[in-house]
Amino acid sequence: MVARPTKAREVSFSSLPLRQRFFDRVWEVVRRIPPGRVTTYGRIASDLRRPKGVTLRHFKASGPRWVGQAMAHCPPGVPWHRVINAQGKVSRRARGDGHRRQQGLLEAEGVVFDALGRVDFAVFGWPKRQR
DNA sequence: GAGATGACGTCCA
DNA sequence: ATGGACGCCATCT
Fold first, then answer.
1. How far is the CA of A13 from the C1' of B9 (A)?
2. Distance, CA of A75 to CA of A72 (rounded, Å)
3. What is the pLDDT of residue A6?
């Protein structure tokens, strides 16, 4: 899949955007996260295979954000709420209050947030952190 | 078409 | 600990 120059709207049906392919892979991973566990955008990105044509540097810098984009466009049935940021917190949305709902869903699954709104990855992280 | 913006992470003061 | 700048670029205004 060669990254073809996207001339504004000419790509509507020419091919499934590279982005869509990547999103599919992300959702596949997120679906495997068990209830009551959480993982991070960066962890998912680094676990996924880097798309061809994307430099390591680029992927490292943008991968996590692409995962975030994938979460923003999740199809029904994907436990998007189990993905949080590397600081152990629920990421605030630029608009809306989805992050509140997210924390609520996690707490309903037994995930505990400390006073600073952080989750202990040693307890709730997925995959389970080895030590 | 130009400019701003991200459901992030890392580094440095 | 924590606050701010930066990288990177596809989308959205």
1. 34
2. 9
3. 35
Nearest Cα neighbor of A29 from A131, A129, A130, A126 is: A126
List, in order, residues 6 or more apart from A125 with CB less than 8 Å away.
A37, A38, A39, A119
Residue A8, helix vs strand vs coil: coil
Whether A59 and A10 have beta carbons less than 8 Å apart is answered as no
| Residue of least CA–C1' distance to B6 | A65
CA distances (Å), origin A116, targets A67, A80, A119: 24, 22, 9
- The answer to whether residue A2 scores a pLDDT higher than 50 is no
Write down the pLDDT at residue A99.
87
The two tokens of residue A56 are 């390591």
Confidence band for A89, pLDDT divided at 50, 70 and 90: very high
Tokens standing for A8?
């504004």
Q: State which nucleotides on strand B lie below 7 Å from a protein beta carbon.
A: 1, 5-10
